[in-house]
Protein backbone atom coordinates (compact mmCIF):
# COMPACT_ATOMS: atom_id res chain seq x y z
CA UNK A 1 0.00 0.00 0.00
CA UNK A 2 2.93 2.34 0.40
CA UNK A 3 6.22 3.08 -1.26
CA UNK A 4 7.77 4.25 2.00
CA UNK A 5 10.12 1.98 3.87
CA UNK A 6 8.37 -0.10 6.49
CA UNK A 7 11.32 -0.91 8.73
CA UNK A 8 11.11 -0.80 12.49
CA UNK A 9 13.12 2.44 12.69
CA UNK A 10 10.74 4.17 10.27
CA UNK A 11 7.75 2.96 12.27
CA UNK A 12 9.18 4.32 15.52
CA UNK A 13 10.04 7.65 13.94
CA UNK A 14 6.57 7.94 12.43
CA UNK A 15 4.88 7.15 15.73
CA UNK A 16 7.00 9.68 17.61
CA UNK A 17 6.42 12.36 15.01
CA UNK A 18 2.67 11.80 15.11
CA UNK A 19 2.58 11.96 18.91
CA UNK A 20 4.56 15.17 18.86
CA UNK A 21 2.28 16.85 16.32
CA UNK A 22 -0.90 15.74 18.10
CA UNK A 23 0.26 16.78 21.54
CA UNK A 24 1.58 20.16 20.43
CA UNK A 25 -1.63 20.87 18.55
CA UNK A 26 -3.83 19.95 21.49
CA UNK A 27 -1.76 21.86 24.04
CA UNK A 28 -1.95 24.97 21.88
CA UNK A 29 -5.72 24.67 21.54
CA UNK A 30 -6.06 24.03 25.26
CA UNK A 31 -3.90 27.00 26.24
CA UNK A 32 -5.76 29.41 23.99
CA UNK A 33 -9.25 28.21 24.87
CA UNK A 34 -8.75 27.87 28.61
CA UNK A 35 -9.47 31.51 29.57
CA UNK A 36 -12.69 31.48 27.51
CA UNK A 37 -13.76 28.21 29.12
CA UNK A 38 -13.01 29.50 32.61
CA UNK A 39 -15.19 32.56 31.93
CA UNK A 40 -18.01 30.27 30.77
CA UNK A 41 -17.82 28.20 33.93
CA UNK A 42 -17.80 31.27 36.15
CA UNK A 43 -20.74 32.81 34.28
CA UNK A 44 -22.68 29.56 34.54
CA UNK A 45 -22.18 29.44 38.30
CA UNK A 46 -23.26 33.05 38.78
CA UNK A 47 -26.31 32.51 36.55
CA UNK A 48 -27.31 29.63 38.80
CA UNK A 49 -26.87 31.76 41.88
CA UNK A 50 -29.22 34.31 40.31
CA UNK A 51 -31.71 31.58 39.36
CA UNK A 52 -31.93 30.53 42.98
CA UNK A 53 -33.03 34.01 44.05
CA UNK A 54 -35.74 34.17 41.41
CA UNK A 55 -34.22 35.23 38.08
CA UNK A 56 -35.90 33.29 35.26
CA UNK A 57 -34.09 31.58 32.39
CA UNK A 58 -35.58 34.11 29.96
CA UNK A 59 -34.26 37.05 31.92
CA UNK A 60 -30.81 35.53 32.13
CA UNK A 61 -30.52 34.72 28.43
CA UNK A 62 -31.40 38.34 27.62
CA UNK A 63 -28.63 39.66 29.88
CA UNK A 64 -25.08 40.13 28.59
CA UNK A 65 -22.37 38.21 30.49
CA UNK A 66 -21.02 41.45 31.98
CA UNK A 67 -24.48 42.38 33.18
CA UNK A 68 -24.90 39.04 34.96
CA UNK A 69 -21.54 39.39 36.70
CA UNK A 70 -22.41 43.03 37.50
CA UNK A 71 -25.58 41.98 39.32
CA UNK A 72 -23.52 39.52 41.33
CA UNK A 73 -20.97 42.18 42.29
CA UNK A 74 -23.62 44.75 43.19
CA UNK A 75 -26.37 42.73 44.86
CA UNK A 76 -24.53 39.95 46.64
CA UNK A 77 -22.40 40.10 49.72
CA UNK A 78 -20.17 37.09 50.28
CA UNK A 79 -19.57 36.00 53.85
CA UNK A 80 -17.09 33.31 54.77
CA UNK A 81 -17.83 31.54 58.02
CA UNK A 82 -15.42 29.38 59.94
CA UNK A 83 -16.28 26.28 61.95
CA UNK A 84 -17.52 28.34 64.92
CA UNK A 85 -19.68 30.40 62.56
CA UNK A 86 -17.57 33.50 63.07
CA UNK A 87 -16.78 35.49 59.98
CA UNK A 88 -13.42 34.37 58.61
CA UNK A 89 -11.00 37.07 57.59
CA UNK A 90 -9.61 37.29 54.11
CA UNK A 91 -6.21 38.31 55.47
CA UNK A 92 -5.89 35.10 57.46
CA UNK A 93 -6.61 32.83 54.48
CA UNK A 94 -4.31 34.87 52.26
CA UNK A 95 -1.41 34.77 54.66
CA UNK A 96 -1.78 31.00 55.16
CA UNK A 97 -1.81 30.42 51.41
CA UNK A 98 1.14 32.78 50.93
CA UNK A 99 2.98 30.57 53.38
CA UNK A 100 2.23 27.64 51.08
CA UNK A 101 3.92 29.44 48.23
CA UNK A 102 1.02 31.00 46.35
CA UNK A 103 2.04 34.30 44.73
CA UNK A 104 0.38 37.38 46.20
CA UNK A 105 -0.95 38.59 42.85
CA UNK A 106 -2.86 35.33 42.24
CA UNK A 107 -4.47 35.59 45.66
CA UNK A 108 -5.41 39.26 45.32
CA UNK A 109 -7.11 38.47 42.01
CA UNK A 110 -9.36 35.83 43.56
CA UNK A 111 -12.80 36.49 44.94
CA UNK A 112 -13.55 35.46 48.49
CA UNK A 113 -15.41 32.29 47.53
CA UNK A 114 -12.63 30.86 45.36
CA UNK A 115 -10.08 31.84 47.98
CA UNK A 116 -12.05 29.83 50.52
CA UNK A 117 -12.29 26.80 48.23
CA UNK A 118 -8.56 26.87 47.64
CA UNK A 119 -7.91 27.21 51.36
CA UNK A 120 -10.22 24.32 52.26
CA UNK A 121 -8.73 21.95 49.69
CA UNK A 122 -5.12 22.92 50.41
CA UNK A 123 -5.39 22.37 54.15
CA UNK A 124 -7.03 18.97 53.61
CA UNK A 125 -4.40 18.02 51.06
CA UNK A 126 -1.56 18.94 53.39
CA UNK A 127 -3.14 16.96 56.20
CA UNK A 128 -3.42 13.91 53.94
CA UNK A 129 0.22 14.26 52.84
CA UNK A 130 1.29 14.44 56.47
CA UNK A 131 -0.55 11.17 57.05
CA UNK A 132 -3.34 12.67 59.13
CA UNK A 133 -7.03 12.17 58.57
CA UNK A 134 -8.10 15.01 56.26
CA UNK A 135 -11.52 15.29 57.87
CA UNK A 136 -10.03 16.25 61.22
CA UNK A 137 -8.07 19.03 59.58
CA UNK A 138 -10.86 20.30 57.37
CA UNK A 139 -11.03 23.99 58.24
CA UNK A 140 -14.76 23.67 57.44
CA UNK A 141 -15.02 27.18 56.05
CA UNK A 142 -18.28 27.81 54.30
CA UNK A 143 -19.69 30.54 52.12
CA UNK A 144 -22.92 32.42 52.65
CA UNK A 145 -24.23 34.66 49.90
CA UNK A 146 -26.43 37.47 51.15
CA UNK A 147 -28.73 38.82 48.45
CA UNK A 148 -29.39 42.49 49.06
CA UNK A 149 -30.62 44.34 45.97
CA UNK A 150 -30.73 48.05 46.76
CA UNK A 151 -29.12 47.52 50.16
CA UNK A 152 -32.05 45.62 51.67
CA UNK A 153 -31.43 41.95 52.50
CA UNK A 154 -33.90 39.76 50.65
CA UNK A 155 -32.46 36.26 50.77
CA UNK A 156 -29.66 34.07 52.05
CA UNK A 157 -28.10 31.66 49.56
CA UNK A 158 -25.97 28.70 50.49
CA UNK A 159 -24.06 26.40 48.14
CA UNK A 160 -25.13 22.75 48.24
CA UNK A 161 -23.08 19.84 46.98
CA UNK A 162 -23.01 16.06 47.20
CA UNK A 163 -23.24 12.76 45.40
CA UNK A 164 -26.00 12.07 42.93
CA UNK A 165 -26.27 8.75 41.14
CA UNK A 166 -23.23 9.10 38.87
CA UNK A 167 -21.24 12.05 40.06
CA UNK A 168 -21.21 15.09 42.31
CA UNK A 169 -24.16 17.49 42.00
CA UNK A 170 -23.57 21.14 42.83
CA UNK A 171 -26.13 23.86 43.29
CA UNK A 172 -27.55 26.65 45.42
CA UNK A 173 -30.54 26.98 47.70
CA UNK A 174 -31.94 30.41 48.59
CA UNK A 175 -33.89 31.03 51.79
CA UNK A 176 -36.20 33.92 52.60
CA UNK A 177 -35.48 36.31 55.46
CA UNK A 178 -37.14 33.98 57.98
CA UNK A 179 -34.41 31.43 57.06
CA UNK A 180 -37.14 28.85 56.84
CA UNK A 181 -39.05 29.38 53.60
CA UNK A 182 -37.30 28.30 50.39
CA UNK A 183 -37.01 31.08 47.84
CA UNK A 184 -35.46 28.94 45.14
CA UNK A 185 -33.06 26.14 44.29
CA UNK A 186 -30.78 25.51 41.33
CA UNK A 187 -28.27 22.93 40.13
CA UNK A 188 -25.34 23.82 37.91
CA UNK A 189 -23.13 20.77 37.80
CA UNK A 190 -24.22 17.17 37.53
CA UNK A 191 -23.77 14.05 35.43
CA UNK A 192 -27.18 12.45 35.96
CA UNK A 193 -28.91 10.38 33.27
CA UNK A 194 -30.41 12.62 30.57
CA UNK A 195 -34.19 12.36 30.62
CA UNK A 196 -34.23 10.84 34.12
CA UNK A 197 -32.01 12.24 36.87
CA UNK A 198 -30.99 15.19 34.71
CA UNK A 199 -34.56 16.47 34.97
CA UNK A 200 -33.60 18.02 38.32
CA UNK A 201 -32.59 21.05 36.27
CA UNK A 202 -36.08 21.44 34.80
CA UNK A 203 -38.17 24.36 35.98
CA UNK A 204 -41.14 22.37 37.28
CA UNK A 205 -38.88 20.40 39.58
CA UNK A 206 -37.08 23.44 40.96
CA UNK A 207 -40.39 25.32 41.34
CA UNK A 208 -41.51 22.44 43.58
CA UNK A 209 -39.21 23.68 46.31
CA UNK A 210 -40.36 27.29 46.31
CA UNK A 211 -42.39 28.14 49.42
CA UNK A 212 -41.62 24.88 51.23
CA UNK A 213 -40.20 25.06 54.75
CA UNK A 214 -36.98 23.58 56.10
CA UNK A 215 -38.07 23.77 59.77
CA UNK A 216 -40.81 21.71 61.41
CA UNK A 217 -43.42 23.21 63.73
CA UNK A 218 -41.10 22.95 66.71
CA UNK A 219 -38.44 24.97 64.90
CA UNK A 220 -36.08 22.05 64.31
CA UNK A 221 -34.38 21.38 60.99
CA UNK A 222 -36.32 18.79 58.98
CA UNK A 223 -35.04 19.77 55.51
CA UNK A 224 -36.98 19.00 52.34
CA UNK A 225 -37.38 15.53 50.94
CA UNK A 226 -38.23 14.35 47.45
CA UNK A 227 -41.29 12.13 47.59
CA UNK A 228 -41.70 8.96 45.56
CA UNK A 229 -44.30 10.23 43.13
CA UNK A 230 -46.72 13.08 43.79
CA UNK A 231 -46.67 14.60 47.27
CA UNK A 232 -50.47 14.79 47.54
CA UNK A 233 -50.77 11.07 46.85
CA UNK A 234 -47.90 9.61 48.86
CA UNK A 235 -47.16 11.89 51.83
CA UNK A 236 -49.37 12.46 54.91
CA UNK A 237 -50.97 15.91 55.05
CA UNK A 238 -48.97 17.25 57.97
CA UNK A 239 -45.69 16.73 56.06
CA UNK A 240 -46.74 18.33 52.77
CA UNK A 241 -44.77 21.41 53.69
CA UNK A 242 -41.50 19.48 53.71
CA UNK A 243 -41.88 17.26 50.63
CA UNK A 244 -41.66 17.89 46.88
CA UNK A 245 -42.89 15.84 43.91
CA UNK A 246 -40.40 13.22 42.75
CA UNK A 247 -39.15 12.30 39.29
CA UNK A 248 -40.11 8.81 38.22
CA UNK A 249 -37.06 6.78 37.27
CA UNK A 250 -34.72 9.02 39.27
CA UNK A 251 -35.10 7.66 42.78
CA UNK A 252 -31.36 7.46 43.47
CA UNK A 253 -30.65 10.97 42.20
CA UNK A 254 -33.41 12.18 44.52
CA UNK A 255 -32.02 10.26 47.45
CA UNK A 256 -28.61 11.86 46.90
CA UNK A 257 -30.12 15.34 46.84
CA UNK A 258 -32.14 14.66 50.00
CA UNK A 259 -29.00 13.58 51.83
CA UNK A 260 -26.70 16.42 50.90
CA UNK A 261 -29.38 19.08 51.16
CA UNK A 262 -30.05 18.06 54.75
CA UNK A 263 -26.38 17.78 55.71
CA UNK A 264 -25.49 21.11 54.10
CA UNK A 265 -28.41 22.87 55.75
CA UNK A 266 -27.46 21.42 59.11
CA UNK A 267 -23.97 22.93 58.81
CA UNK A 268 -25.47 26.39 58.60
CA UNK A 269 -28.31 25.76 61.06
CA UNK A 270 -26.43 26.86 64.22
CA UNK A 271 -25.58 30.16 62.55
CA UNK A 272 -29.07 30.59 61.15
CA UNK A 273 -30.46 30.10 64.68
CA UNK A 274 -28.53 33.14 65.86
CA UNK A 275 -29.69 35.15 62.85
CA UNK A 276 -33.34 34.27 63.41
CA UNK A 277 -33.32 35.71 66.92
CA UNK B 1 -17.96 -1.20 2.10
CA UNK B 2 -18.69 -1.99 -1.53
CA UNK B 3 -18.31 1.66 -2.52
CA UNK B 4 -14.87 1.80 -1.05
CA UNK B 5 -13.72 -1.28 -2.87
CA UNK B 6 -15.20 -0.19 -6.14
CA UNK B 7 -13.70 3.29 -6.02
CA UNK B 8 -10.38 2.14 -4.67
CA UNK B 9 -9.76 0.03 -7.74
CA UNK B 10 -10.57 2.65 -10.32
CA UNK B 11 -8.99 5.54 -8.45
CA UNK B 12 -5.64 5.64 -10.26
CA UNK B 13 -6.97 5.56 -13.84
CA UNK B 14 -9.74 8.13 -13.69
CA UNK B 15 -9.05 11.85 -14.03
CA UNK B 16 -9.99 13.77 -10.91
CA UNK B 17 -13.19 15.70 -11.24
CA UNK B 18 -14.55 17.98 -8.54
CA UNK B 19 -18.16 16.91 -8.74
CA UNK B 20 -18.24 14.15 -11.31
CA UNK B 21 -20.64 11.25 -11.31
CA UNK B 22 -18.40 9.19 -9.08
CA UNK B 23 -18.00 12.01 -6.55
CA UNK B 24 -21.74 12.51 -6.36
CA UNK B 25 -22.19 8.81 -5.77
CA UNK B 26 -19.71 8.88 -2.88
CA UNK B 27 -21.79 11.52 -1.13
CA UNK B 28 -25.22 10.19 -2.06
CA UNK B 29 -24.79 6.51 -1.38
CA UNK B 30 -24.41 6.60 2.42
CA UNK B 31 -27.35 9.01 2.73
CA UNK B 32 -29.90 6.29 2.25
CA UNK B 33 -28.99 3.16 0.26
CA UNK B 34 -25.81 2.41 2.20
CA UNK B 35 -26.62 4.30 5.39
CA UNK B 36 -24.03 3.77 8.14
CA UNK B 37 -26.64 3.44 10.90
CA UNK B 38 -29.55 1.60 9.36
CA UNK B 39 -27.63 -0.61 6.95
CA UNK B 40 -24.21 -1.10 8.46
CA UNK B 41 -25.60 -0.68 12.00
CA UNK B 42 -22.66 1.42 13.20
CA UNK B 43 -22.73 4.31 15.66
CA UNK B 44 -25.81 3.04 17.47
CA UNK B 45 -24.60 4.09 20.92
CA UNK B 46 -24.73 7.82 20.26
CA UNK B 47 -27.88 7.43 18.19
CA UNK B 48 -29.56 6.26 21.40
CA UNK B 49 -27.82 8.51 23.88
CA UNK B 50 -28.11 12.04 22.53
CA UNK B 51 -31.47 11.89 20.79
CA UNK B 52 -33.79 12.61 23.74
CA UNK B 53 -34.37 16.02 22.20
CA UNK B 54 -33.58 17.66 18.89
CA UNK B 55 -31.11 20.36 19.93
CA UNK B 56 -28.34 18.15 21.36
CA UNK B 57 -28.96 15.83 18.41
CA UNK B 58 -28.12 18.62 15.96
CA UNK B 59 -24.97 19.61 17.84
CA UNK B 60 -23.88 15.97 17.93
CA UNK B 61 -24.38 15.70 14.17
CA UNK B 62 -22.27 18.80 13.55
CA UNK B 63 -19.54 17.49 15.87
CA UNK B 64 -19.47 14.11 14.14
CA UNK B 65 -19.40 15.71 10.69
CA UNK B 66 -16.39 17.83 11.69
CA UNK B 67 -14.53 14.85 13.13
CA UNK B 68 -15.34 12.43 10.31
CA UNK B 69 -14.46 14.83 7.46
CA UNK B 70 -11.32 15.96 9.29
CA UNK B 71 -10.07 12.48 10.10
CA UNK B 72 -10.80 11.18 6.60
CA UNK B 73 -8.84 14.02 4.99
CA UNK B 74 -5.88 13.78 7.38
CA UNK B 75 -5.64 9.98 7.13
CA UNK B 76 -5.94 10.20 3.36
CA UNK B 77 -3.11 12.74 3.12
CA UNK B 78 -0.90 10.53 5.26
CA UNK B 79 -2.02 7.23 3.71
CA UNK B 80 1.20 6.59 1.81
CA UNK B 81 3.38 7.27 4.81
CA UNK B 82 1.53 5.40 7.53
CA UNK B 83 3.42 2.21 8.46
CA UNK B 84 1.00 -0.63 7.89
CA UNK B 85 1.74 -2.31 11.21
CA UNK B 86 0.59 0.61 13.32
CA UNK B 87 -2.09 2.06 11.04
CA UNK B 88 -4.99 1.44 13.44
CA UNK B 89 -3.31 3.23 16.33
CA UNK B 90 -2.33 6.07 14.00
CA UNK B 91 -5.96 6.48 12.97
CA UNK B 92 -6.99 6.36 16.58
CA UNK B 93 -4.52 9.12 17.52
CA UNK B 94 -5.74 11.36 14.72
CA UNK B 95 -9.39 10.73 15.57
CA UNK B 96 -8.98 11.25 19.30
CA UNK B 97 -7.02 14.46 18.78
CA UNK B 98 -9.81 15.80 16.60
CA UNK B 99 -12.47 14.77 19.10
CA UNK B 100 -10.65 16.43 22.00
CA UNK B 101 -10.33 19.55 19.86
CA UNK B 102 -14.07 19.58 19.09
CA UNK B 103 -14.84 19.02 22.78
CA UNK B 104 -12.61 21.93 23.81
CA UNK B 105 -14.16 24.20 21.17
CA UNK B 106 -17.66 23.33 22.38
CA UNK B 107 -16.64 24.07 25.96
CA UNK B 108 -15.34 27.46 24.89
CA UNK B 109 -18.04 28.59 22.47
CA UNK B 110 -21.16 26.62 23.31
CA UNK B 111 -20.85 25.87 26.99
CA UNK B 112 -24.52 25.04 27.58
CA UNK B 113 -24.50 22.44 24.80
CA UNK B 114 -21.24 20.90 25.96
CA UNK B 115 -22.78 20.51 29.40
CA UNK B 116 -25.82 18.81 27.97
CA UNK B 117 -23.87 16.43 25.72
CA UNK B 118 -21.29 15.88 28.46
CA UNK B 119 -19.42 12.64 27.89
CA UNK B 120 -20.99 11.81 24.55
CA UNK B 121 -18.77 14.24 22.67
CA UNK B 122 -15.67 12.40 23.85
CA UNK B 123 -17.38 9.15 22.95
CA UNK B 124 -17.25 10.11 19.25
CA UNK B 125 -13.81 8.47 19.44
CA UNK B 126 -15.51 5.12 19.86
CA UNK B 127 -18.03 5.76 17.10
CA UNK B 128 -17.38 2.92 14.68
CA UNK B 129 -18.33 5.04 11.68
CA UNK B 130 -15.25 7.24 12.08
CA UNK B 131 -12.78 4.39 12.41
CA UNK B 132 -14.65 2.38 9.78
CA UNK B 133 -14.43 5.07 7.12
CA UNK B 134 -10.75 5.75 7.87
CA UNK B 135 -9.88 2.07 7.43
CA UNK B 136 -12.25 1.29 4.57
CA UNK B 137 -12.01 4.44 2.52
CA UNK B 138 -9.47 7.08 3.51
CA UNK B 139 -6.54 4.62 3.56
CA UNK B 140 -7.10 3.91 -0.13
CA UNK B 141 -8.37 7.15 -1.62
CA UNK B 142 -7.30 10.71 -2.35
CA UNK B 143 -8.09 13.51 0.11
CA UNK B 144 -10.94 15.10 -1.89
CA UNK B 145 -12.76 11.79 -2.38
CA UNK B 146 -12.17 10.97 1.28
CA UNK B 147 -13.63 14.30 2.32
CA UNK B 148 -16.75 13.62 0.26
CA UNK B 149 -17.01 10.14 1.72
CA UNK B 150 -16.76 11.60 5.23
CA UNK B 151 -19.41 14.18 4.39
CA UNK B 152 -21.75 11.58 2.91
CA UNK B 153 -21.45 9.23 5.83
CA UNK B 154 -21.85 11.89 8.48
CA UNK B 155 -24.91 13.25 6.67
CA UNK B 156 -26.31 9.74 6.50
CA UNK B 157 -25.71 9.44 10.23
CA UNK B 158 -27.27 12.85 10.83
CA UNK B 159 -30.43 12.07 8.85
CA UNK B 160 -31.19 9.05 11.01
CA UNK B 161 -30.27 10.83 14.25
CA UNK B 162 -32.48 13.79 13.42
CA UNK B 163 -35.38 11.46 12.61
CA UNK B 164 -34.97 9.67 15.94
CA UNK B 165 -34.47 12.95 17.85
CA UNK B 166 -37.52 14.47 16.15
CA UNK B 167 -39.71 11.52 17.06
CA UNK B 168 -38.45 11.25 20.62
CA UNK B 169 -38.81 14.92 21.50
CA UNK B 170 -42.23 15.20 19.85
CA UNK B 171 -43.70 12.05 21.36
CA UNK B 172 -41.75 12.13 24.63
CA UNK B 173 -42.13 15.75 25.68
CA UNK B 174 -44.52 17.27 23.12
CA UNK B 175 -41.89 19.78 22.04
CA UNK B 176 -39.55 20.47 19.12
CA UNK B 177 -36.27 22.30 19.72
CA UNK B 178 -37.64 23.22 23.12
CA UNK B 179 -40.86 24.83 21.83
CA UNK B 180 -44.20 23.37 22.80
CA UNK B 181 -45.73 21.86 19.67
CA UNK B 182 -48.57 19.76 20.98
CA UNK B 183 -51.31 22.19 22.02
CA UNK B 184 -52.41 22.50 25.64
CA UNK B 185 -55.97 21.69 24.58
CA UNK B 186 -54.93 18.18 23.59
CA UNK B 187 -53.46 17.58 27.04
CA UNK B 188 -56.71 18.71 28.62
CA UNK B 189 -58.55 16.18 26.51
CA UNK B 190 -56.45 13.50 28.18
CA UNK B 191 -53.39 13.23 25.92
CA UNK B 192 -50.25 12.16 27.80
CA UNK B 193 -46.62 12.35 26.67
CA UNK B 194 -45.09 8.95 25.99
CA UNK B 195 -42.53 8.72 28.79
CA UNK B 196 -41.04 5.61 27.19
CA UNK B 197 -39.73 7.70 24.29
CA UNK B 198 -37.36 9.58 26.60
CA UNK B 199 -35.72 6.35 27.75
CA UNK B 200 -33.29 4.25 25.65
CA UNK B 201 -35.91 1.60 24.79
CA UNK B 202 -37.91 4.35 23.09
CA UNK B 203 -34.95 5.08 20.85
CA UNK B 204 -34.55 1.39 20.05
CA UNK B 205 -38.18 1.12 19.02
CA UNK B 206 -38.00 4.20 16.77
CA UNK B 207 -34.68 3.10 15.29
CA UNK B 208 -36.14 -0.33 14.60
CA UNK B 209 -38.99 1.22 12.64
CA UNK B 210 -36.61 3.44 10.69
CA UNK B 211 -34.38 0.48 9.80
CA UNK B 212 -37.45 -1.48 8.70
CA UNK B 213 -38.68 1.34 6.46
CA UNK B 214 -35.21 2.01 5.10
CA UNK B 215 -34.46 -1.62 4.25
CA UNK B 216 -37.84 -2.10 2.66
CA UNK B 217 -37.39 0.98 0.52
CA UNK B 218 -33.87 0.14 -0.62
CA UNK B 219 -34.74 -3.57 -1.00
CA UNK B 220 -31.88 -4.79 1.14
CA UNK B 221 -32.14 -8.26 2.62
CA UNK B 222 -29.71 -10.09 4.86
CA UNK B 223 -28.59 -13.40 3.42
UniProtKB/TrEMBL annotation, chain A:
Keywords: Cell inner membrane, Cell membrane, Flavoprotein, FMN, Ion transport, Membrane, NAD, Phosphoprotein, Sodium, Sodium transport, Translocase, Transmembrane, Transmembrane helix, Transport, Ubiquinone
Enzyme Commission designation: 7.2.1.1
Post-translational modification FMN phosphoryl threonine, affected residues: 251
GO cellular component term, pick one: plasma membrane
Membrane topology, from the record: Single-pass membrane protein
GO BP, sorted A to Z: sodium ion transport
Keyword Cell membrane: yes
Domain FMN-binding: 164-268
Localization, UniProt: Cell membrane
Annotated signal peptide: none
UniProt KW Translocase keyword: yes
The protein's enzyme class: translocase
Family, similarity comment: Belongs to the NqrC family.
HAMAP family: NqrC
PANTHER family assigned: NA(+)-TRANSLOCATING NADH-QUINONE REDUCTASE SUBUNIT C
Subunit details: Composed of six subunits; NqrA, NqrB, NqrC, NqrD, NqrE and NqrF.
The protein's name: Na(+)-translocating NADH-quinone reductase subunit C
Organism encoding this protein: Sulfidibacter corallicola
Automatic annotation (TrEMBL), chain B:
Biological processes annotated in GO: sodium ion transport
Cellular compartments annotated: Cell membrane; Endomembrane system
Keyword annotations of the record: Cell inner membrane, Cell membrane, Ion transport, Membrane, NAD, Sodium, Sodium transport, Translocase, Transmembrane, Transmembrane helix, Transport, Ubiquinone
Transmembrane segments: 61-82, 88-105, 117-134, 154-171, 191-213
Pfam families: Rnf-Nqr
EC numbers on record: 7.2.1.1
Keyword Oxidoreductase tagged: no
GO molecular function terms attached to this record: oxidoreductase activity, acting on NAD(P)H, quinone or similar compound as acceptor
A GO cellular-component term linked to this record: plasma membrane
Membrane topology value: Multi-pass membrane protein
Assigned protein family: Belongs to the NqrDE/RnfAE family.
HAMAP family, per database record: NqrD
Quaternary context: Composed of six subunits; NqrA, NqrB, NqrC, NqrD, NqrE and NqrF.
Function text: NQR complex catalyzes the reduction of ubiquinone-1 to ubiquinol by two successive reactions, coupled with the transport of Na(+) ions from the cytoplasm to the periplasm. NqrA to NqrE are probably involved in the second step, the conversion of ubisemiquinone to ubiquinol.
Protein name in the entry: Na(+)-translocating NADH-quinone reductase subunit D
Amino acid sequence: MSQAKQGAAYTYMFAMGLCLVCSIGLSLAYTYLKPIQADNVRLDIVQNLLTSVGYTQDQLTKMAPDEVLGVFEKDFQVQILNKDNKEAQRDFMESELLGLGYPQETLTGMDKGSLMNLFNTKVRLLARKAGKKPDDYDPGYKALYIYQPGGKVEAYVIPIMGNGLWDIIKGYIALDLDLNTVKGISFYEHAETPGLGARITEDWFKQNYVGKHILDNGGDLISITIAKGKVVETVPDRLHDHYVDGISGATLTGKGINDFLKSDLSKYEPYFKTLRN
Amino acid sequence: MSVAEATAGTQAKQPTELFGKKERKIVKDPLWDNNPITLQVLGICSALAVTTSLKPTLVMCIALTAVLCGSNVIISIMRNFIPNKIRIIVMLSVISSLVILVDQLLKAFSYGMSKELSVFVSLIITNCIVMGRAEAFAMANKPWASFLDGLGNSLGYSIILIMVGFGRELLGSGKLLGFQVIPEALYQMGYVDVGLMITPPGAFILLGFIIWIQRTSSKHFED
